[in-house]
Structures are given as structure tokens and as C-alpha cells.
TrEMBL record:
<feature type="active site" description="Proton donor/acceptor">
    <location>
        <position position="379"/>
    </location>
</feature>
<dbReference type="GO" id="GO:0006508">
    <property type="term" value="P:proteolysis"/>
</dbReference>
<dbReference type="GO" id="GO:0004181">
    <property type="term" value="F:metallocarboxypeptidase activity"/>
</dbReference>
<dbReference type="InterPro" id="IPR036990">
    <property type="entry name" value="M14A-like_propep"/>
</dbReference>
<keyword id="KW-0482">Metalloprotease</keyword>
<comment type="similarity">
    <text>Belongs to the peptidase M14 family.</text>
</comment>
<feature type="signal peptide">
    <location>
        <begin position="1"/>
        <end position="16"/>
    </location>
</feature>
<dbReference type="Pfam" id="PF00246">
    <property type="entry name" value="Peptidase_M14"/>
</dbReference>
<dbReference type="GO" id="GO:0005615">
    <property type="term" value="C:extracellular space"/>
</dbReference>
<keyword id="KW-0862">Zinc</keyword>
<dbReference type="InterPro" id="IPR003146">
    <property type="entry name" value="M14A_act_pep"/>
</dbReference>
<keyword id="KW-0732">Signal</keyword>
<keyword id="KW-0479">Metal-binding</keyword>
<keyword id="KW-0964">Secreted</keyword>
<feature type="domain" description="Peptidase M14">
    <location>
        <begin position="121"/>
        <end position="413"/>
    </location>
</feature>
<dbReference type="InterPro" id="IPR000834">
    <property type="entry name" value="Peptidase_M14"/>
</dbReference>
<dbReference type="GO" id="GO:0008270">
    <property type="term" value="F:zinc ion binding"/>
</dbReference>
Length: 417
């Protein structure tokens, strides 16, 4: 009888507490393929509303747009799409279940893993950070790790310097995880670091000829929140002044043509640009590191997911930088090496031309203000079958192919000896 009472009160308690994922129950992802510029324009306007979550942005005629709607907003989305004359396909019929499936797969892989850090499962912010520290201890001749600031919620942000040559060597700055839910990004950036440190003899030329400045997870609070509360969180976690609406889109927050296109001033929007440029302390921290190494930096690479795109500036305008052909040509070489590994195909172009204009991105700032010539935003796997819930088995293949692309970029800057 006593056990029954305990059980009953437990069940009551469990029912009363909202489960962290409950708000995803009934959420679905709709895929539409725009056929006119008008439809693209209308869809881009919809991003600014806070009703829908665009998993991929409108790009061009014939390119799919994936829109998540919570249960409550589904009827409205359907009628909007109908009015627009857009047929939809249900890409994910049960988002909560997809999130749960990835969670289970990741927990299973983590349980099997024998090391604190590996690439058979996704890792938490603290695991990544501790691993970075361990590298500095284990490979002192290859890398150093520095604390470069604190996040809004007080997490330490770290930068790893990798290279055996002088500080004057050409520098490549790499970051990951700017958008919290894009888990494959920090996983791939850490894969790259690991590949270099484990095989430093093989890559001796690269390590002697260029320096890497790497920050694998530049939105720590957002990333932690995707582990604890909402797997699909994109933004930072700062208070906005609007109750119930936290965070700014860190990739709309950079101070170059800030708020000029594809960004929102509504704190509840997923593309909220922040109250002012560089309102987000995490982006200030990354900016300051880029400025610190600015004189040597030749390339800036920022990893996102998903869509399989290799993009260069500008993102705020349809205009192209005057040297776009050089950026395009290196991107072509990098992507052909990438595709050579597992056959994964990528689209290449300026971000405005393959996506819709969006100002305040780190790539535009790195080139426009930071003066880093080869600035790229890379959208990793996949094209939407798994989307943000990319299974852990794909971390290694994604790492392998991306590493080949990075080698092409690094070799391009090797000073001829
Ligand atoms: N999906 C990325 C984002 O929305 C693409 C960024 C491309 N760069 C840009 N400056 N718009 O942040
Ligand atoms: Zn992103």
C-alpha cells in the first residue's frame, strides 16, 4: 500500500512538472520548394515573425525551405502556404520523436565510448572544454590553450592555438557552434583539431607553415541549453527585456551593415539581431580574438549546419566582393577534395546568392572589418533528411571529408620553401 502511494504521488508529480521537451509535442517540419521570386520574398518575410522556426532559409527557386511549426501554429502555416500556392511535404512528422531518437542514439554511443572525448557521439560543452585543456598539457609543442573571456551565464571560452612555426606565419581562424543546435559543427571542429594533434608528423608541413586559431563552441550557453532544455535552441541565452524571449541570433549580431537585411528587431524572433551590434558578450570575445591575430589572418572559417554549402561574402547585399573569383576558386578546390572522400556534394557561392540576404554575420565582419580575405561560412551535413539530428555515426565521415577540404585551404597558404 505504501509503495502504491509513493508510486501514485510520483506519477502525480511527474504529470504536474512540464517535461522539458513537451513544447515540441505535435511540432512538425514542412518542406516547401518555392517556384517564384515572390514566394521566396514572402517566405523570407515570414522568418521575422516569431511563429515559425526556419530550419533552412529560403534560397532560390527550386531549393527547399524547411519550416518547423509548433502544434498550435500548424493550421495557420498550412493556410498561409495554401494562399501562397505552395505545396508542402511533411519533412518531419514528429519533431519530439526525432529529438528523442537522436538523444537515445547519442546516449547509447556515449555509454559505449571508453574515452572522455571521441567522435562516436556528441559531447557537452564541459567535455569539450576539458578536452581542450588536456591537449595543451599533452601536446605542449603543438598547441596552447587560452581563456579568452566568459559567456553571459559565466562559462569560460577557450581558444586553441595550433602550429609549430613562428607567430608571423599565416593564420587561419576557425570557429564552430555559433548556432547552438548545429551540433555537428563543434563535433567537426574538434575532429579537425584531433586529426592534427594525433597525426602531427603527417601534417608537419602544414603545422610548420600556418597557425590555426580555433574556438570549437562559441555559443556555450546556447549549446548547454540544447543539452538541458531545448534541443532546437539557436540563439544565445541573454536577457532581452522581453519576458519569455531570450537570446539574440549571434550570426546577426556582428557590427558590419548590422540589421540592414534578413534580421529582426523582435527579441522573440530566432533571427533577433540583438539590441545593438555586438550586444552579445560571446561575439565580443570572438571578435577580440580575430582582431588580436588580424595582422596574420588569411582565412576565417565558421562552421554551421545543415545544407552542405560553402559560402563566401557578402551576406548583407547581392553585390560580390571585388576579389570574389579568388574566394570562389579556393572554395571550388576545397569542395572537390571534400566530395572526393565520401561523394558528399556541396553548393558554392556568395551567401546572398545561394541564401537570402542576412546582415550581421561573422563572415561579413571578418572580411569587411577584420580584413581577412578568405572568409567562409560552411554549412555541413546533411541536406535535411536528419537535419540538426544528424546521427552520431555521421560525425567521423563528416570530419573526414571536412578535414580534406581544410587541408586544401591550409596548403594554399603554405609559404613556398
Ligand atoms: N545559415 C547561416 C545564418 O543564417 C548563413 C549565414 C551566411 N552568412 C551571412 N552573412 N548571411 O546565419
Ligand atoms: Zn547556423
Amino acid at each position: 500500500m505504501k509503495t502504491l502511494l509513493v508510486l501514485a504521488s510520483f506519477l502525480l508529480l511527474a504529470a504536474a512538472l512540464p517535461t522539458p521537451k513537451s513544447f515540441l509535442h505535435g511540432a512538425q517540419v514542412f518542406r516547401v520548394v518555392p517556384k517564384t521570386e515572390g514566394q521566396i520574398h514572402y517566405l523570407s518575410g515570414l522568418i521575422k515573425s516569431d511563429h515559425y522556426d526556419f530550419w533552412t532559409e529560403p534560397r532560390a527557386i527550386g531549393k527547399p525551405v524547411d519550416i518547423m511549426a509548433k502544434a498550435f501554429h500548424i493550421p495557420q502555416l498550412k493556410s498561409t502556404l495554401l494562399k501562397l500556392g505552395l505545396k508542402y511535404e511533411i519533412l518531419v512528422s514528429n519533431v519530439a520523436q526525432q529529438v528523442e531518437a537522436l538523444h537515445m542514439a547519442n546516449e547509447k554511443a556515449r555509454a559505449k565510448g571508453t574515452k572522455a572525448m571521441d567522435w562516436t557521439s556528441y559531447h557537452t560543452y564541459d567535455e569539450i572544454t576539458e578536452w581542450l585543456d588536456s591537449l595543451a598539457t599533452d601536446y605542449p609543442s603543438l598547441c596552447t590553450v587560452e581563456d579568452v573571456g566568459t559567456s553571459y551565464e559565466g562559462r569560460t571560452m577557450k581558444l586553441l592555438k595550433l602550429g609549430t612555426g613562428p607567430a608571423t606565419n599565416p593564420g587561419i581562424f576557425i570557429d564552430g557552434g555559433i548556432h547552438a543546435r548545429e551540433w555537428i559543427s563543434p563535433a567537426t571542429v574538434t575532429y579537425i583539431i584531433n586529426e592534427f594533434v594525433q597525426n602531427s608528423d603527417t601534417y608537419a608541413d602544414i603545422l610548420a607553415g600556418v597557425n590555426f586559431y580555433i574556438m570549437p563552441s562559441i555559443n556555450p550557453d546556447g549549446y548547454a541549453y540544447t543539452w538541458s532544455n531545448d534541443r532546437l535552441w539557436r540563439k544565445t541565452r541573454s536577457e532581452t527585456g522581453t519576458p519569455g524571449c531570450r537570446g539574440a541570433d549571434p550570426n546577426r549580431n556582428w557590427g558590419f551593415h548590422w540589421m540592414e537585411a534578413g534580421a529582426s528587431s523582435n527579441p522573440c524572433s530566432d533571427i533577433f539581431a540583438g539590441s545593438v551590434e555586438f550586444s552579445e558578450v560571446e561575439m565580443q570575445n570572438v571578435r577580440d580574438q580575430i582582431l588580436k591575430y588580424q595582422d596574420t589572418l588569411v582565412a576565417y572559417l565558421t562552421f554551421h549546419s545543415y545544407s552542405q554549402l560553402w559560402m563566401y561574402p557578402w551576406g548583407y547585399t547581392t553585390d560580390l566582393p571585388s576579389d570574389w573569383q579568388e574566394l570562389d576558386s579556393l572554395a571550388q578546390d576545397a569542395v572537390s577534395a571534400l566530395t572526393g572522400v565520401h561523394g558528399t556534394s556541396y553548393d558554392i557561392g556568395s551567401s546572398t546568392n545561394i541564401l537570402y540576404a542576412a546582415a550581421g554575420g561573422s563572415d561579413d565582419w571578418a572580411k569587411g572589418v577584420g580584413n581577412v580575405k578568405y572568409s567562409y561560412t560552411i554549412e555541413l551535413r546533411d541536406t535535411g533528411f536528419w537535419g540538426f539530428q544528424l546521427p552520431p555515426e555521421q560525425i567521423i565521415p563528416t570530419g573526414e571529408e571536412t578535414f580534406e577540404a581544410l587541408k586544401v585551404v591550409a596548403n594554399f597558404f603554405l609559404t613556398p620553401r
